[in-house]
Write a structure and sequence with these properties.
Length: 140
C-alpha cells in the first residue's frame, strides 16, 4: 500500500512540474523520472521501483508527445536508477546521477537525440535533481 502512495505522490508531482515547465520555461528536464526511480529503488523492491519508473515514463510521454520516443527510450536509464538506488543507497546519489546521465547520453546517441536541446536537458535535469535531493535530504 505504501508503494501506491509513493507512486501517486510522485505522479502528481511530476504532472504538476511538467505542466509548470510547459507553461513557464518550455524546458524539459524538470521532472522526477530519475529521483523517484532512484528513491523507489532505495526504499522498495526492485520490481516495485521499475513499476514506478514505468508509470512516470507513461505519464511523461503523454504530456510530451513530440518527445515520447526519447522518453520511452530512456527506460534502461530509469531501470538503472532503480538498481543504483537499491544497491548503492543514498550515499551514492551524486555518483548514481552521473551514471544515469551517462546511460541517458548513450541511449540518446543511439537514436540520434544528441544536440543542443539534449545538452540543455542534461544541465537542467542534473540541476533539478540536485535541488530535489538537497530538499529531500534536509527533510528526511
Amino acid at each position: 500500500m505504501q508503494i501506491l502512495l509513493f507512486t501517486l505522490i510522485f505522479l502528481l508531482l511530476d504532472v504538476a512540474m511538467n505542466l509548470i515547465s510547459l507553461k513557464v520555461t518550455k524546458l524539459l528536464g524538470m521532472d522526477f523520472l530519475f529521483f523517484a526511480s532512484w528513491l523507489a529503488g532505495m526504499n522498495y523492491e526492485v520490481s516495485q521501483g521499475i513499476v514506478v519508473s514505468l508509470v512516470l515514463i507513461a505519464e511523461h510521454s503523454m504530456l510530451h508527445m513530440r518527445k515520447s520516443k526519447f522518453i520511452g527510450f530512456s527506460l534502461p536509464a530509469q531501470i538503472g536508477a532503480v538498481l543504483l538506488g537499491h544497491f548503492l543507497g543514498a550515499g551514492w546519489f551524486f555518483g548514481s546521477l552521473i551514471i544515469y546521465q551517462v546511460i541517458n547520453t548513450g541511449l540518446m546517441s543511439i537514436i540520434g537525440g544528441i544536440g543542443l536541446r539534449f545538452g540543455i536537458f542534461l544541465v537542467v535535469n542534473t540541476l533539478f535533481n540536485i535541488l530535489v535531493y538537497n530538499i529531500w535530504s534536509r527533510v528526511v
